[in-house]
Amino acid sequence: MDGFAVVDTETTGIDATHRHRIAEVAVVHLDPGGAVTGEWSTLLNPERDLGPQAIHRITAAEARLAPRFADIAGDLVDRLRGRVVVAHNWPFDAMHLRAEFTRIGLDTPFDEVAGLCTMRAASVVMPQSRRSLIACCATAGLPAMRWHTARDDAMAAGALLGHMLATAPGVVQPTAEHLRAAAWAWPELPRGVVAPAQRRPADHIEPHFLARLVERLPRDEEPVVDAYFAVLDDALLDRRISASDADALVGVATRLGLRRDDVLAIHHTYLRALAQVAAAAGERDRSDIDLVARLLGLDPVAAAGDPVHLDPAPTVGGLVLRPGDKVVLTGMMTADRDELTARAAAAGLRVMTAVSRQTRVVAAADPDTMSVKAREARALGVPVVDEAAFVRALDVLAP
Fold first, then answer.
1. Which residue has the higher pLDDT, 223 or 102?
2. DSSP states of 176-220 as a string?
3. pLDDT interval class at 324 (50, 70, 90)
4. Burial level of 284, CB count in 10 A (0-12/13-18/19+)?
5. Which residues contact 338 (CB under 8 A, 6 or more apart)?
6. 4-182: in CATH 3.30.420.10
7. What does the alpha-carbon distance between residue 138 and residue 36 come to, in Å, rounded to a whole number?
8. Enclosing H/E stretch for 72
9. For 326-397, which CATH superfamily applies?
10. CATH 3.30.420.10 spans which residues of the chain?
11. Residue 297 has pLDDT above 80, yes or no
């Protein structure tokens, strides 16, 4: 064999048979002695909601632009070929890898005994330790990692294997089943189709979407901006501009032939209208206006100026729900889904299981989610808002 391929996957859920997918995969190469000789990892677009984001911390804004499994299958196979596969809780990773390869019509050797499981081996070498990768590494005296990222978890599992190769080599010697899987005749697949996608650094700040609009754009006539106002109003319902919202705003501005200075002027108009609606309603708290100003790339004092009229007028405070509105929930919410559904129904909302043109909003755990419901909502022009905005609107509506 050529050595070991230590793999780790971050997934949208536990059970691959329930349509859960891989959202990040990593492979770390070790030589037969346990030394690291290479690493590779990428985020994946799972083409569905991301599930337990509080655990893996992958955002939909990152994953939606990542490659799909089919795009990187050749790169992954190239890193598995000829090596004994290793994972901490191998049956879990085997199940998800097998399911992903099956979706693209590829057979694999990945049954439950095909890979070397460091969790199982650690239970023999250090029986006093709990089973988790974090606990096993701590018991072995290995350094802490950025847990629940595929790359660092694979590195940690590799370090744990190296520790056991040095201290109890008989426990982690490859079996006949491991070697059979290592010799699997993988087909030749295209490699380098797309570049791997990495997680954003913790301090990453996304450039404002205005930076993606050109300064000067030739046009034949003054553009009609109602379409931009409509998209802007939907984008600001939850008082944030998600990556999907930003794409939509840039897209409609480009289609309308709007230059960057045009869009800034439109933002000023929108902000002045919002300030006037707030004043007419007796609102003295400027925090909402200041927040919208920042989202639009403006100085909050820009809300002053001549009266303007937008039909419909911007809503102070964002999303407003009314009894009878149809709403749809998607993704793994922070709140219990059944409890949230019951609250919405008690407030007079109609909680639907499918999106239609009559849907008021889709409330999502992550507004950039790639769930089927969110994709249908965007196609129909239905706003997708985050859970916090939906709960705030529900609190106002609830008796």
1. 102
2. HHHHHHHT--PPP----SS----PPPTT--PPPGGGGS-S----S
3. very high
4. exposed
5. none
6. yes
7. 20
8. helix 69-80
9. BRCT domain (3.40.50.10190)
10. 4-182
11. yes
